[in-house]
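ok so heres the complex, four chains, lmk if somethin looks off
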Amino acid sequence: MAGNFKKDLFAQFARVAKALGNGHRLELLEFLAQGERNVEDLARVSGLSVRNTSQHLQQLRQVGLVTSRKQGLHVYYRLTSDDVVQLLQCVRGVAERHLADVKVLVDTYLTVKDALEPMPVAELLERVRQGEVTVLDVRPSEEYAAGHLPGAVNIPLAELEQHLDELRDSGEVVAYCRGPHCVLAFEAVERLRGKGLKARRLQDGFPEWKAAGMPVEAE
Amino acid sequence: MAGNFKKDLFAQFARVAKALGNGHRLELLEFLAQGERNVEDLARVSGLSVRNTSQHLQQLRQVGLVTSRKQGLHVYYRLTSDDVVQLLQCVRGVAERHLADVKVLVDTYLTVKDALEPMPVAELLERVRQGEVTVLDVRPSEEYAAGHLPGAVNIPLAELEQHLDELRDSGEVVAYCRGPHCVLAFEAVERLRGKGLKARRLQDGFPEWKAAGMPVEAE
DNA sequence: ACACTATTCCATAGATTAGTGGAATAGTCA
DNA sequence: TGACTATTCCACTAATCTATGGAATAGTGT
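and the predicted structre for the whole thing:
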């Protein structure tokens, strides 16, 4: 009797984990962590067919990780709550610390990772108070529009070269993007440094900032 | 190129989640969170065949969640690190908060849950300092032996009735077991209250205590 | 060397999951 | 109303996962 309860309960927990057990779904969740999006949009950015995307979203919804609302023709999905972001952080953290393959990937693709001097949130707050830094959001403009760090400037990575002068005049740049493993901020900091600017990478991305309860500005 | 990195990385994270995506494996992890155990032992307590247990353990090992060491004939498995416990906590938490089926299960099997007044760790520390409480570990003695709260008394649930007198003389009882959803402490507190003792349940179990960096006593 | 034990490896049948195409649904726009 | 769009539902194939039994491996004790 109690034995059944235990089995049943673990089976339920397993459902949640199973929903996370697919790379495409994790990618969808990362996009959703930036803000609400409709199915077509998600299909486009993730490179999946619309139907397939829809099915994955259903699975995520069935285990309560996302919810949806219908507006006009579109169905907009979003994360059910910020604790989903924390769960993702947890999975990523364990994977990075204990899975050798992840270390290899990170080391080969993310330019030594620590060479770009990731800045902790606490330090950023201090710097911002002293007016020494420009906070730079290098995500696509839709994601910036859906929510971003207060006072952050949005320059999508592709347009970075055209805005070098503005950045050059305004002290050190701290760039962030979708999360700690997203390449956008890495790439941005590298390019900025290549042009002689002082630039560092924020340790976490927008979703982690928001999930930590920090203030968010939308536009 | 960067796109491949992203897909590959998410695929790796998914491997970790997939390893958690099975009730039997979650149960094995919960047992391992109590302390090191060999395959046969794990098979027995989880009700799986030895071969099957071994295969599940391999999967957990492949994604770095557990490690093993060989001693004599036996292979002993243990969690790779305490952050695996935190990951499990995270999964359970999200499931409990967002999955209706879990709420139903918890409410029907766990005696109203909050009626037993779960005590937070901070409060326990305070009480212990004042010498007002007996900390009671109701897990099987092997698990107690592998590690327990400092000063805790071990009375496995089955033997509770024989030790009522000892407990009656020593103030309030705070019982804990394998984790926040484990039935042992619930059951213990109910029985103790039924016999007229003052008893409460510790909010978390031994693994969470240990993973939080609190001191642990082994015997 | 021998029998013995605990664990792992391998092959296999049944169950589950991922992705595809066609059809159904609900809402919009003219 | 009818044409159109975004999304979901359904059916189907290929791939993956679970549990089982038989065989192999490594270590123990005699």
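quick notes: Chain A touches chain B through 51 residues (CB under 8 Å). thats all i got rn
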